[in-house]
Design a protein that fits this description.
It contains ten helices and nine strands. By secondary structure, the chain is an alpha/beta fold. About 40% of the residues are buried.
Length: about 375
C-alpha cells in the first residue's frame, strides 16, 4: 500500500508541476484548434457499404435488381405520389425560324407549379424523339432551365444548345429544379435579419433540412419533379414516348443517372461529368464541393452509386468524364464502370454501355463531348 501511495503522490506532484497560475480569469488562454482531438482519420470511420456482387446469371440479377430498386426508393424517403395525369398551364408561347416553344407551369401535387419550357421543331412529320435536358448546378442559381438557351459548351460558336437538338429533329424539355431561376427565393426559409426569402446555397440548405426532417430527401424530391416532367413529355402528341432520352452535365448528369435508373421510360442516357462513387469522393476530403442534392441520408449504409446506375442495364448509357474531375474521383468511376460492365454482360448488351475519358480534363464540358452526345442520341434513339 505504501508503494501505491508513493506512486500516486508522485503523479499528483507531476500534475501540479504542469499547472499554470493566472492573475485573473481573463488571462487564461482561449481554446483553439487542436489536432489531438482526432484519434482516427475521418476516411477510416466510413460505414462499411455493402458491396454490389453481380451474380452469374441474368435470372439471379433480375431478382437482385428488384431488391436494389426497392432499397433505393426506400432510402430516398417517403416520396409523395405524383399526379395521376399532368396538370399543365401554358403561360407563354413563341417561335423562331426553326421551332416553336411553350412555357408552362406543371402542378406537381405537392404544392408547387414547376416551371418549364418545351421546344418543338417546325415541320414535324409524325411523332418525334424527345430529350429531357437536366440542368447543372455550379452555384449558378440564375441559370437552371436557361442552360439550353446558352451556347456553352459550344464556346464562341454562339449557337444555343437547344438549336442543336432542334435541327436534328428532337423535341426538348427543360424544367427548373428547386432554388433555380424561376424557383429562386421560393423555398421555406427566410433571412432572420431581413425577413427576406433565402436564395442560393442558403435556400438549398433550408430545403435540405425541410425535407430531411420529414423523412424525405432533397435528391428524391428533385427526381420526383423530373419524373413529373417525363409524365408530361410522354403525353405530348408530338413525342414518341418510346424514344425519350435524358442528358445533363454535373448535377444534370447525376439527375440523369438516377432518373434513368429508377424510370424505365428513359431509353437512352448520356451523363456528363458526374458519376460520383460517394466513398471515393469523401476520402478526398473535398466534401463541400458537392452540393446538397448529392447527399442522400443513409445511402452509404445500404448502397453506393454502382448499385443505382446498374439498374439502367440493358438500356443505352454513355458516361463522358474528365480524368481530373474533382467531383468524380477516377478510382470510383472505374469501379462503377467495372460493375456496370458485369451487369450489361448478363444481358449480352455490352455494346450499349460506353465510357469516354478525357485525359487531363477537370469538371468541364467540351464541344467534342457535346457532339458525341448528339451523335449517340441520333444512333440510338
Amino acid at each position: 500500500m505504501k508503494r501505491i501511495f508513493a506512486v500516486m503522490l508522485a503523479l499528483l506532484m507531476c500534475t501540479a508541476a504542469w499547472a499554470e497560475s493566472y492573475e485573473t480569469t481573463e488571462d487564461i488562454p482561449l481554446n483553439a484548434s487542436d489536432d489531438k482531438v482526432v484519434l482516427t482519420d475521418w476516411a477510416d470511420r466510413l460505414v462499411e457499404t455493402p458491396e454490389l456482387v453481380v451474380p452469374d446469371t441474368l435470372e439471379a440479377w433480375e431478382e437482385q435488381r428488384a431488391d436494389i430498386s426497392a432499397m433505393v426508393w426506400d432510402t430516398l424517403g417517403s416520396i409523395p405520389p405524383r399526379p395521376e395525369a399532368p396538370v399543365i398551364e401554358t403561360y407563354e408561347t413563341g417561335e423562331t425560324p426553326i421551332m416553336t416553344y411553350e412555357k408552362f407551369y406543371m402542378d406537381d401535387a405537392y404544392g408547387d407549379d414547376v416551371p418549364g419550357t418545351i421546344y418543338i421543331p417546325k415541320g414535324l412529320e409524325g411523332k418525334a424523339p424527345a430529350i429531357l435536358y437536366l440542368h447543372y448546378h455550379g452555384d449558378e442559381f440564375e441559370t437552371g432551365q436557361n442552360e439550353v438557351l446558352f451556347s456553352w459548351p459550344l464556346a464562341d460558336e454562339g449557337q444555343p444548345l437547344v438549336d442543336e437538338f432542334i435541327k436534328r429533329g428532337y423535341v426538348v424539355m427543360a424544367i427548373d429544379a428547386y432554388a433555380f431561376t424561376t424557383r429562386s427565393g421560393q423555398g421555406p426559409g427566410v433571412d432572420p435579419d431581413t425577413g427576406a426569402k433565402e436564395t442560393g446555397l442558403a435556400e438549398e440548405a433550408s430545403l435540405y433540412k425541410y425535407f430531411t426532417v420529414q423523412g424525405l430527401s432533397y435528391m428524391g424530391m428533385i427526381l420526383r419533379d423530373d419524373q413529373c416532367a417525363l409524365d408530361y413529355l410522354s403525353s405530348r402528341e408530338e413525342v414518341d414516348a418510346a424514344r425519350i432520352g435524358v442528358t445533363g452535365m454535373s448535377m444534370g448528369g447525376t439527375r440523369a443517372n438516377w432518373l434513368a435508373a429508377l424510370d424505365e421510360r428513359v431509353k437512352v442516357t448520356v451523363s456528363v461529368a458526374c458519376l460520383t462513387r460517394m466513398q471515393d469522393f469523401i476520402k478526398t476530403g473535398n466534401i463541400k464541393w458537392h452540393a446538397f442534392f448529392n447527399w442522400v441520408p443513409g445511402m452509404l449504409a445500404r448502397f453506393d452509386t454502382e448499385q443505382v446506375v446498374s439498374l439502367i442495364a440493358p438500356r443505352n448509357y454513355v458516361q463522358l468524364m474528365g480524368t481530373e474531375d474533382i467531383g468524380s474521383p477516377l478510382s470510383g468511376v472505374k469501379y462503377i464502370q467495372d460493375k456496370m460492365e458485369q451487369v450489361y454482360a448478363l444481358y449480352d448488351a455490352s455494346d450499349k454501355l460506353e465510357f469516354h475519358y478525357y485525359e487531363g480534363l477537370d469538371h468541364d464540358y467540351l464541344p467534342e463531348e457535346f457532339e458525341l452526345m448528339l451523335d449517340y442520341f441520333d444512333a440510338n434513339l
